[in-house]
Here is the input.
Amino acid sequence: MTIKPLIILPDPILRQTSALLEDVTPEVQSLAGDMLETMYDAPGIGLAAIQIGVPKRVVVIDLHKEGEEKKPQVFINPEILSSSDARSTYEEGCLSIPDYYAEVERPATIRVRYVDLDGKAQEIEADGLLATCLQHEIDHLNGVLFIDHISRLKREMVIKKFTKAAKLRA
Ligand code: NI
Here is the structure.
């Protein structure tokens, strides 16, 4: 497992739509391993493959609490089947938009279908932080960032700030 460099806003790669996987090959398993390693190193609680530059529909999440054992979860081709009308708000951040946080309102409960690392189809009902995290990561697979869910004024300010920083890095 290798720690990969993260793609940072405003890199246009983040706006790509990721492709469905046809099979859970050893390459996909190794991609998921690299993603987990990269996420733990950052550290973060969720990562989509596109954030390390791979436009494939793979998401990793780990919501274990501090002092508890790691609980890695891998979602291949995740798809939201239904969303609750009830909504909840969390302060979100993103490894591709470091050190920026904002409150985002999303459906509180979702039903998600995905394929696990063994290639088996699974379905879960997620609520709480997992529901928000899954929606945030599935957004990434469609080229959507959490800042797309905040006010235009705030979004433009963040993009401007990160564009400036990228120019300084270049
Ligand atoms: Ni993110």
